[in-house]
Structures are given as structure tokens and as C-alpha cells.
Design goal:
Elements lengths: L3 E2 L10 H6 L11 E2 L2 H9 L6 E4 L10 H4 L1 H11 L3 E6 L7 H6 L5 E6 L5 H7 L5 H13 L3 E6 L9 H5 L5 E4 L8 H5 L10 E3 L2 E3 L2 H8 L6 E4 L4 H10 L13
Parallel strand pairs: 3-4, 4-5, 5-6, 6-7, 7-10
Antiparallel strand pairs: 1-2, 8-9
Helix pairs in contact: 2-4
């Protein structure tokens, strides 16, 4: 469910939603759409209690417009009322402010904060979100306050990372997603990514080899590591050999 649509302020160069919508002229990061809260409520009333609903599948539900409109806040109030779990995927420090931590039901809230790399020079080229230190602090604040929080290395720009800095993030859970390459991404991401390594073709994307992925994963030192992957054989390998919870690559505490 997307409380906001039609674009996202963060406008990430690797974003799959941007890839899907931009060429159709449906992506407007500076003119973000707001979903009617009465329509959201009607949808939520049809969802069975206990369901896990992802907030912000196509846009970040805590992008700056939330400071003004509070559509995500109102949506979470409704989800709390109807006992529906919510998975929040965001880059925003707003999610770790007192206002929202007091709103979240710890039995229902599951939060993932995206950090593709610790390299701020790279982050400045890939999105309009906060720097690494702010995102790190967001994760650690939620972890310290006993929320179900994961570091989300997505897409994991591993060649640009200082693993000591990544492993220094104080959190138990780490979820990894590797970059999936469409041709247009090469112009967006320039020299940040070595696209020659993406030779495996599946599902309309180019992917890294399993060996390349495993080499980068071996350097991550988190108690609960999980990998979500679109390549069928790779997903099966991670499920059987890597993922902390083989039944759930997001490793949510339910």
C-alpha cells in the first residue's frame, strides 16, 4: 500500500518503480501524489487481521511530504486499529522520531532502513536521501528502543563499501538485495557499478553470479543475515544455506 504515489522525492537512480514508471511519464518526484485516506481506510477494512502489509511498495512512505500531510501516520493508526502488521521500508530518519515511535505498535511494526553503501559520495549520486551517518543513527535508535528493525542493504553496492563501517551498525538483522540491472541503469549509475560483472540474464534483468554474491556476503558480520533474490536458483541457495529464517527472507518477528 502506497500512502503517496506518482513519484518519490528520493528519486533513486536504481529504483525499480522509477524504471517502470518514468518512461510512461508517470514519475513525478517533485509533484508527489497523495492517496485519499478514506480510500485507504476502505481497503484496510477488507484486509484480515494478522496480515503483513508492506507500506511504500512503489514510493517511500516517509519521504518529506509526510512531515506536512501525515498520510502514513493516519494509515498506521488504521492498521493498529485493525491489528494488521506493517512492513515499512524507508530511507528517512522521520521513522525514528518520538512522534512515530510512540505511534508504532511493537507487535505490528516491522521496519527496514535502506543503506546501499556507507560511501556518502556515492549516496549523493544515487538518491536525495540522508547521508550514511543519519541512516545508521536511525537504525540504531530503533534497535535501542526494541523495535523489529533491519538494516536493508538494497541494492547492495558492495564494491563501494567499507565493510568495517557497515558491520559497525548496531543491529542484529541485515537483509541484502543485490542490484538488478536494466539497460537504462548504466546511464543513471555511470561508473559507480562495474556492469561487466552482471552477465547472468533472468526475468528481464542482468544479475551477478552466485559466486560474486557469496564473496560479498562473506564479509558481512551480523547475527541474523538474510538475502532476498530474484534469481530462482540463487534464492533457493540462500534459503537453504544463508537465510536466518528459511521461511521468510525478510526475517520479520511475528
Amino acid at each position: 500500500m502506497d500512502p503517496y504515489g506518482k513519484g518519490c522525492y528520493y528519486n533513486c537512480r536504481y529504483c525499480y518503480a522509477k524504471q517502470l514508471l518514468d518512461f510512461r511519464k508517470l514519475w513525478h518526484p517533485n509533484d508527489v501524489g497523495v492517496a485519499p485516506i478514506d480510500k485507504i481506510e476502505r481497503k484496510i477494512k477488507k484486509i484480515p487481521a494478522g496480515t503483513v502489509l508492506r507500506l511504500g511498495g512503489m514510493t517511500d512512505c516517509f519521504q518529506p511530504i509526510e512531515n506536512e500531510i501525515k498520510n502514513t501516520y493516519k494509515t498506521i493508526e488504521l492498521l493498529n486499529k485493525h491489528n494488521i502488521h506493517y512492513l515499512i521500508v524507508t530511507k528517512s530518519p522521520l521513522v525514528a522520531t518520538d512522534e512515530y515511535m510512540e505511534l508504532f505498535d511493537k507487535k505490528l511494526a516491522h521496519i527496514q532502513v535502506s543503506i546501499p553503501t556507507d560511501n556518502n559520495d556515492v549516496l549523493n549520486q544515487t538518491d536525495n536521501a540522508e547521508n550514511f551517518e543519519v541512516r545508521k543513527n536511525t537504525i540504531e535508535t530503533l534497535f535501542k528502543n526494541n523495535f523489529d528493525i533491519s538494516l536493508r542493504l538494497a541494492p547492495f553496492l558492495y564494491e563501494t563499501c567499507d565493510y568495517d563501517k557497515i558491520n559497525d551498525i548496531k543491529v542484529d538483522k541485515c537483509l541484502v538485495e543485490f542490484l538488478r540491472v536494466k539497460p537504462s541503469m548504466e546511464s543513471y549509475l555511470g561508473k559507480i557499478v562495474d556492469f561487466d560483472k552482471f552477465q547472468l540474464k533472468e526475468g528481464g534483468y542482468r544479475h551477478l553470479s552466485l559466486e560474486e554474491k557469496l564473496d560479498s556476503l562473506d564479509k558481512l558480520k551480523f547475527p541474523e543475515l538474510s538475502v532476498c533474490d530474484d534469481v530462482g536458483d540463487h534464492y533457493n541457495y540462500f534459503q537453504e544455506n544463508i537465510n536466518f529464517n528459511p521461511e521468510d527472507c525478510c526475517n520479520l518477528t511475528l
